[in-house]
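Q: Convert this sequence to structure tokens.
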Amino acid sequence: MNTQLNKTNNKSVLTLSALALAMALPASAATVLTKDNGAAVGDNQNSITAGERGSVLLEDVQLIQKLQRFARERIPERVVHARGTGAHGVFVASKELDDLTIAAPFSEAGKETEVFVRFSSVIHSKGSPETLRDPRGFATKFYTDEGNWDLVGNNLPVFFIRDAIKFPDMVHSLKPSPVDNIQDPNRFFDFFSYEPGSTHMLTWVYSDYGTPASLRKMDGWGVHAYKMINQSGDVKYVKFHWVSQQGIDNLDGKEVAKVQSQDFQHLTRDLYQEIGKGNFPKWDLYIKTLEPSQLDNFEYNPLDATKMWLNVEETKVGTMTLNRMPTNFFQSTEQVAMAPGNIIPGIEPSEDRLLQGRVFSYSDTQMYRLGANHQQLPINRAKVDVVNYNQDGAMNYGNTTSNVNYQPSHENVSENPIARRSQTELKGYVQQAAIKKQQNFAQAGVLYRGFSKQERTNLINNLAGDLGKVQNSDVKHKMLSHFYKADSDYGTRLTKAVNGDIKMVKQLAAKL
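A:
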């Protein structure tokens, strides 16, 4: 829905790009989706943005309500990333990045910044076996001398969806049924059959990357594009990539069964044991950067979380070493509150629609789980003085002594202009519409063709194991058409593996 407000003869006239949507629904129309107050929802697929490249707007009541309600579905376990393992360490910058950013960790070569990393499963519950197929969270809290910065990512470079308004629905489909509490491929493939952009991430997850052999032996990715801002206010878009110095090691289907029969918590045990032995794991941090003017130089939208920046050079900017396990699991790993909204001067969120929603949702979730004062907990507390007038609330053990709890005031507390947000040029209309240049299948095909012969076979077997359980023929063949569109060999082999109709698959793929 695109809206434009025109003033004609001193009257405000609302024009709609699709006038038919404003007409009354026919009596035979399907049940209307509503917000909690009963009001109809106009678009449940796209967040409201300031134009094609603009930020998501706080006035999007449906987005905010969905994320707020979603964050409050569980007490006290996290809804996603419930099972986690954390470790302390240090990040050392390999070079100064003054040309790119004023962010404290990159201010000079050799600069050391304390970190805490939480690895996690995404979908499965707190007590689930670590052998289960799942993306793995890779979240790093940097305790910088400009405040805490959280780089909250995964072990895979992309995600299933590109808009946060779909996140609660996606997780609902992947979680157990609300009726019988059973996880069911019929449910999540039903959802993904309407999300062709998920093809890339599904190819990653159903490869052996979905079942890592060791937390030490997997890469980490920021997934989203962020912004870096230097002293002059110049902006570059950036993507982050943790590269394991231990290499990458995954489990195939047979290895998963063997490991699970012996140790369902192999990832946690391995990390504790190796760090305990003094075998401290290390990751090199690499970045890719783009000028704002380069965003239109691709056949896809670089701010789309379902896409990698292929053929863009990476630069190493530092190394992280994990060298100490927590002395108490709950106080550290369970209470650490990672959130993309924890940023520092020199780093900002991009206009990535999924990231824009996460900036709100993660902070809101942590506030719900741990309380308004969760950042006063030792594991979350900044290493620098925190000066603001947020007050009271449960578990507040700050040391308020001044009668002044407002700003501005006669006290010498003021803003720092260096921390102001960068300026982003906007044009167009406030809109609620899907992004352009979606290119839903190409990178999934690139990934498939980049796998070895054995990795392709494992991918087909892994996917067929779940897709073959789908009873609805339309859903199954829609999914098959997505994989066929990515790569004809990929789709053909998978269709054969689940006894699908290749003729129907080709017909559906031709319409995509």
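DSSP finds 13 helices and 14 strands in the chain.
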